[in-house]
Design a protein that fits this description.
Bound molecules: coenzyme A
CATH architecture of the largest domain: 3-Layer(aba) Sandwich
CATH topology of the largest domain: Aminopeptidase
Number of helices: 13
Structural class: alpha+beta
Helix content: 25-40%
Distance between the termini: 26 Å
Length: 448
């Protein structure tokens, strides 16, 4: 089913204000005590290139060329960039720590989105590690987001152990598939529309609009920054091996483009009938587009294996192949979420069943701590108020940390599972789980 976004929830004015807002004063003062300067970096200024070089070095990448810097500058306008500078360092214009963030939108259960602070490019130079700089930056950006009234923060991670201490939880897992294509055997639908090759540039033009039409269908997805589409399509001058990417579209019987996919094929030099297709990105507006694109990819000649990452943990694809054991599926944490404002975050989403929950939320950073009463009506809409005095009849009490509430926010894990894991306390975890559940697993099809 396709959807049209019902008006942006993060306005351009709000995005610009957050981008231009100051660094958090508490973290600035804390870092200043160690002689470090915590300040904003501008995309247009001379400080952008050293900032970018520090990010590359932080992720153990090579030095960026002038061309890379120019391309990154052109693509970074949407981000709020911050650096930590050490005036005593020999190359004092290069920050010893970096962080980027922006105001975006996160899809939540029920075809809705919540304004969310996306965080990225977190690095601390090996010369300055383990002195609390990352903590100062993370806490600082979370306070800045909370001060701006943003109810949720989100990030994808290279290291999964870093962010729980700040209240982030893995809220949407991702699945990586390795499929033996000949063994899989397509048994799914064979839609009437057509699949055609298109130029990568055409895909780059079509993808943002198509993504806007579908992104509210899956909790966990975000509004994709424009630069990501260039990355997928390889349409920047600095893109490497862009010519290896093949672009296809699915057009329905009325002639409308309803799906796009990008893939590469890697030869097997020992056996030319056993190449591997890697699905770079697949975007489907509706079940027909989904079936047609996957069938095309799984039935490619000279290909024996298909690889695809950042899929949902409940892909319909599993039920479109005759032999499910042809697919090896690896699941891991992907989209991390941190609720900052409990009423604002919960009231945006829909819930799985009516009910009343008394949520006793702890939060080491203070943003979300409190006792809340969540009342969900027959339509799955929730109202949240402070839980004071006697609880209404039938209310189920739940004690949990903000990490656990963030983990269940998108419906990616059952509250009953967290209770069984000793992460949540409740007199009736099953009843609470039914309220907080959602019928489709959340997903996020990109990294950011
Ligand atoms: C990971 C990184 C940002 C940590 O920076 P840092 O300034 O050394 O971290 P801090 O000193 O502020 O430590 C903050 C907390 O994280 C913990 N921590 C730091 N690095 C960690 C790691 N690699 N694994 C697990 N825990 C880590 C610290 O023990 C500390 O815990 P505490 O505050 O609860 O006691 C830094 O090492 C780095 O840039 N690494 C390479 C890039 C990277 O991995 N970025 C993260 C992308 S998701």
């Amino acid at each position: 089913m396709s959807t049209t976004v019902r008006g942006a929830v993060a306005s351009e004015a709000d995005r610009a204000a957050f981008r231009a807002g100051p660094v958090d004063e508490q973290s600035r003062a804390r870092l200043a005590e160690s002689g470090l300067d915590y300040r904003r970096t501008t995309v247009d200024g001379d400080d952008f290139a050293p900032w970018l070089q520090s990010v590359a070095r932080g992720f153990q990448d090579g030095e960026r060329t002038a061309e890379h810097v120019a391309a990154a500058r052109a693509r970074s306008g949407y981000r709020r960039l911050t650096g930590v500078y050490d005036p005593a360092a020999p190359v004092s214009e290069a920050p010893v720590a970096t962080i980027a963030s922006w105001l975006g939108e996160l899809t939540v259960p029920g075809h809705a989105a919540v304004p969310a602070c996306a965080i990225s490019a977190v690095t601390v130079a090996p010369t300055h590690r383990r002195r609390g700089i990352a903590r100062a930056m993370l806490e600082g950006e979370l306070r800045a987001a909370a001060d701006a009234g943003i109810p949720v923060a989100m990030l994808t991670v290279s290291e999964s152990t870093l962010y729980g201490r700040y209240g982030f939880a893995p809220a949407a897992a991702s699945a990586s598939w390795r499929i033996e294509t000949r063994r899989a055997t397509w048994i799914g639908p064979r839609p009437d529309g057509r699949v055609d090759f298109i130029a990568r540039e055409t895909l780059r033009e079509l993808a943002p609009g198509l993504h806007e039409r579908v992104r509210l269908s899956a909790a966990g997805e975000i509004d994709v920054p424009g630069s990501h589409w260039d990355g997928f399509a390889g349409t920047t001058p600095t893109a490497e091996k862009a010519g290896d990417k093949r672009a296809i579209q699915y057009t329905d019987a009325t002639g409308e483009v309803r799906g796009l996919a990008l893939y590469t094929v890697k030869e097997n030099h020992d056996d030319f009938t056993k190449a591997t297709v890697r699905v770079v990105y697949l975007l489907a507006d509706g079940d027909d587009a989904y079936a047609a694109l996957w069938r095309f990819l799984l039935e490619l000649d000279l290909v024996a294996e298909a690889h695809a990452d950042e899929l949902s943990v409940d892909e319909p694809l599993r039920w479109m192949i005759a032999d499910q054991r042809a697919a090896t599926v690896t699941v891991r944490d992907h989209q991390y979420v941190r609720i900052l404002d409990v009423p604002a975050a919960l009231e945006v989403r829909r819930f799985g069943a009516p009910g009343i929950l008394a949520l006793d939320v702890s939060d080491a950073l203070g943003h979300a701590a409190g006792r809340y009463l969540l009342e969900v009506d027959a339509d799955g809409a929730g109202r949240v108020r402070a839980a004071e005095g006697d609880l209404p009849a039938g209310a189920v009490e739940v004690s949990l940390g903000i990490e656990e509430l963030s983990a269940v926010y998108l419906g990616g894990v059952s509250l009953a599972t967290l209770a069984a894991a000793g992460r949540v306390r409740s007199e009736d975890p099953s009843a609470a789980a039914r309220v907080l559940a959602w019928h489709r697993a959340p997903r996020l099809s990109i990294w950011y």
